[in-house]
Amino acid sequence: MRKTRIAGAFAGIAIAALALTACNSGTPGAEPGTGDATGDAATSENPWTVATDVTLEGSPTFDRIKAAGKVKIGVKEDQPGLGYLDPATNVRSGFDIDIARWIAASLGYDEDDIEFTAIPSANREQAIVNGDVDYYVGTYSITDKRKEQISFAGPYFITGQGLLVAADNDTITGKDSLTADDIVCSATGSTSIQRIKDETPAQTKEYDTYSACVEDLKNGQVDAVTTDEAILIGYAAQDPDNLKVVGEVFSEERYGVGIAKGDTALQEFINTMFTDGGEVWQAIFDKNLGASGVKATQPDVDPVG
Ligand code: GLU
């Protein structure tokens, strides 16, 4: 831990400008979703359409969903703006959650048919391999190592790794400023913790979740939290007086939908949905991240996931 910190007079203002808004009244009117079959109509709050009479040949996952009559989706629930469960209202929100709902709707399943399960970074591949979830949508970077066990649809979003520090910390200004005195916290099994271990002299601390790291940061137990900037901006927005995101991003994280390895029918279905559904993607982005300061445009899908 470093002992001396100099107050950054403008840090709070900078982060306040990035603040996420809980109010979605600025959502633009959205066009209906993909596909020609329409059940429930698209709205600006749910800018997709629940399809009817969906057939998907050759997808073991879709066969399982049909047999169960429900969709089991793995998500995060402590990442505001991306995957969040409000403990007071029990309402799930975020860009990833809406991407997950859009996929379910395109398969013919609405909110009542979805069973969300929070699964931490380290347990995602195993949950998919076990069939505990039909698919996973939660800041899940596409990597070759993960592709040994599972497949990905997408990418549907691109961000990069960043650093979150105390608002009055002026010594950590980016990845290259990290020293062996710094303790950097991240999630077990993430690309973020691995990169800090591989590319910096900093000490590391690991938890299942990033929110546990943020608590440690607020209590002065660690010097920085590292993960994707889109995630960090959500935490900073919740506590702009005490937290700030610093420096340039230092990786490219391409978010994919985790699916069972080799389910190419489902992979192609989701990829086509993304490719044809640019307006829905934009409405989902605007609704959840438009006011956050997160900058992104929809990426092209990678056919080999
Ligand atoms: N996107 C990175 C990863 O998939 C970090 C965020 C996360 O752990 O979900 O490892």
Q: How does this model look, in words?
A:
The protein has 305 residues and is an alpha/beta fold. The chain folds into 2 domains: 5-159 and 253-292, Periplasmic binding protein-like II (D-Maltodextrin-Binding Protein, domain 2, 3-Layer(aba) Sandwich); 161-246, Periplasmic binding protein-like II (D-Maltodextrin-Binding Protein, domain 2), CATH 3.40.190.10. 30% of the residues lie in helices and 20% in strands. The strands form 4 sheets. Strands 10-9-11-8-12 form a 5-stranded mixed sheet, sandwiched between helices. A 3-stranded parallel sheet has the order 5-1-6, with helices on both faces. Strands 2-3-4 form a 3-stranded antiparallel sheet. Helix 3 packs antiparallel against helix 10 (278-289). The termini are far apart. The relative contact order is 0.21. Bound molecules: glutamic acid. Glutamic acid is lined by residues 121, 138-141, 187, 190-192, 227-228, 253. Glutamic acid binds next to helix 6 and strand 11.
